[in-house]
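User: Fold this one for me? It's Lambda family phage portal protein.
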Amino acid sequence: MSDVKPRMRVKAGTATMAAPVPAARPTAKYLRNDPSRILAMRQAVTRDARIDVWEAAERASALALDFVHNSGWLAGAADQVVSDTIGTELKLNARPDLTGLRYSEEERSAWCRLVEAEWRRWAWTPAECDLAGKSTVPEMLDAVVRYHLVYGEAFGVLDFLTPLGRRAYGIQTGTKVSLVAPHRLPRTTREYEGLDQGIYHDARGRPQQYRFRRREGGLDVDAVIAARDVIHVMDRGDNPGSPRGISVFAPILKVVAQSDQLADATLATALLQTIFAATIKSPEPSEIAFQAIQTLGDDLSGYDGAKETAQDLIDVWGMRIGALKDKGLSMSNPAQVNHLGPGEEFKMHTAATPGSQYLPFSQNLQREMARRIGITFESFALDYSDATYSSVRMGISSIWPIVTRRRERIAAPFAQAIYEAWLEESIAEGRIPLKGGYQAFKTHRQKVVWAEWQGPAQPTADDQKSARAAQTRLELGLSSLSDEAGLLGRDWEETAAQIEREITVLDRRKIPHPFGRTMGGAGANAPQPDIEPVRVKKST
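Assistant: Here's what I get for Lambda family phage portal protein.
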């Protein structure tokens, strides 16, 4: 095969042909379909989540707090989140494992009821649970959820009053809790000291101390508190590796601002509609027309009568305009009769309306805000105009796992930390009896303090259909009484004990009770006829 390059003869003076442009080769990769370079113009980098949080958290919290204070949408959404997550309170459901302490099931159940009753009495007494003696534990949990929405985290500090300090306030317990606003923990970072956003960590990354800033005598002073006395709750799965949180509203702050701007612009347009302008459309000449007529008279001055004709026209139109000025128009005096010249037309001008596209765009912004906050669009906007039973049921079913997750990640850990400190003190001081005493508690601490926290029940669009669904699950063995009571925010053992007491009272007074499965048209409580068994004679 020859390697000599072939020669081609080209006529002198002719243009050479341009080399063909090679076709773009197809590729298989991410982010390849961007001919408009929209993604190329968007600057983005990858880095540790702790740096993102550290740089943006203070500004995001300030904006979020301002919007909550000044936006009815976000303030109402925060109330909805608190109601869904906590309701009136998170109810303690003690679940200790006392098998190692030789407790029978009956003894364990009685011990749990005692603990739950004592806890509820203590948690609803501000003087006993709050260091300042102002808030109950349920009120603290409300504030914890609100702090979580605005700051992305919440803090509490555990204190203990000695018996001498208790006598000064006439209280019995020493365990006390104080809520601390997250901005009271400055995000100071000095990595060479192990200080990361206000928290000292050891070599393994475990928190050791919190450097709070508190107000004393009109001055802000630093207060370093041991980590064992600090309750710090946040959604650590949101920004893994970050010691601090960021506002839940951070991704929608721009959307909230756009919604406010849209509302302000629409209001301004609506106000402009009340302002009108009035004009008169007239065939009479304007000032420019008068000057043109005068110029025409000067140009035709050589013709007989041209200048006089132009002056006559000017005089006539001047008198008509003068007459209109003298008569005038009035839009405020209903008794005045307005006069218009021949060929004149009176017109009113108003501002244009916002247009039909306002409502869909506004609802789209509201949907984005509701999606991030974790509530349905209908509950956010209180707009059920397009909702159906199926859509409401599906919306609640998709949102409720977010509610329970927020309860288990934020509210319940805060309540659990308080409960553990209270229970330890109550056992140590003998108010709550435990076999083996305080030493047994320290040995089996994790088993003794285990508990669940029940919040409000999941809302339903049709209570009857939901009750039938629960009945079907129980009959098919797909659920238990504990599961169904938990969905309603109740303790099934307490419910069963209450039903037992009510049945006893009703039977003593010979009143039919409504409990139990319905049997026949007369119900389960109807007297059943005595039916003798049928005897079958055996064949020989």
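One thing worth pointing out: The chain has a mean pLDDT of 83.
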